[in-house]
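Subgroup meeting minutes
Present: P.N., E.W., G.H.
Scribe: E.W.

1. P.N. recapped why we're keeping a running log of single-chain structure predictions: easier to compare across weeks, and new members can see raw inputs and outputs side by side.
2. G.H. added today's entry (377 aa).
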Amino acid sequence: MIPPRKTRQIQVGPLRIGGDAPIAVQSMAATRTQDIEATRRQVERLQAAGADLVRIAIDSPKDAEALAAIAKGFDVPLSVDLQENYRMAELVAPQVAKLRYNPGHLHHHEKTKSIEEKVRWIADVARKNDCAIRVGVNAGSVAPEYKERFPDDHVGAIVACAVDHCALLDGFDFPDYVVSIKDSDPRLVIDANSRFAEARPDVPIHLGVTEAGMPPEGIIKTRIAFEQLLARGIGDTLRVSLTVPFDDKGKEIAVGREILDDVSNGRFRSVPPNFFDGLNIIACPSCSRVENEKFIDLAEDVKKMTTFAAEYDLTIAVMGCRVNGPGETDDADLGLWCGPKTVNLKRGEELVGNFGYDTILPKLREELDKLIASQTG
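Output recorded in log:
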């Protein structure tokens, strides 16, 4: 049930991605990168769960220094997420097989340099160190120029961004790249990746539903996107992003394998027509950017506290870090993005306030009650 894929094949360390290579299943370390022991343990568990690739986030020179100790002795190839500072590429490339950059974050540093100059520099670093590249376009952090070009077409903006960055890498004669286009809404993931695959059928695609949230809803959202795309021959590697305790991250690999097996054998799960009706809670899957593990418990508490509001068409976002949290809560009716000691509560793009982990739930309930009252009149 998975048609032959038309993409070219690239090498990520010992791993082949694209073309007739098996569809790779990957995950991301959830621990803080500077906690070397915990992060090595996380990579060990993901490797034992059958991960084909493990990604680690890097946000500072200290993270890069820790990576050198983390990367030793693993059979599974490692990828690094450059976050907001693309200059970290030079420090980490010798340790990994793939570099992931987000086009929406390139404008944060060295503002006098063009995006083209920055991408060329990343490509040169990758080439020098025999690394592949992932162009990771995220719907919650769209580059400003694409927001301006496509003010009323969100999917068009992220697809155009991906296509343009492919053209840049092609122009630099760097073919060893994959593209990911992610959103928390599986319907938009299907639309965006279908459009991109039509525009660039040669480019390997990494699939994911970002901030899918907690099981079972997070698994259902992911399955909706993956079933539709894999059945169209779209997807060369994938990740299931779930909000689960650190020790359970291997579940992402198990679920990814299960979905692949089901689609390969024609087993598709039906989705009730009203699945997208009512309250929608999105939550990030946790990664090394998370500065307080209480975020995971908070996501579970939000889910339990809001059961009374299940019938209302509202979205609550629970995000675990300062990198993606501010932007990726903008589209939610209520958003929480979590810091080391406090949680920022937002109503749409407006900041309501900053509250402790032990006081945020009553504040969230207060704002939720207001929204419900406005809906019911």
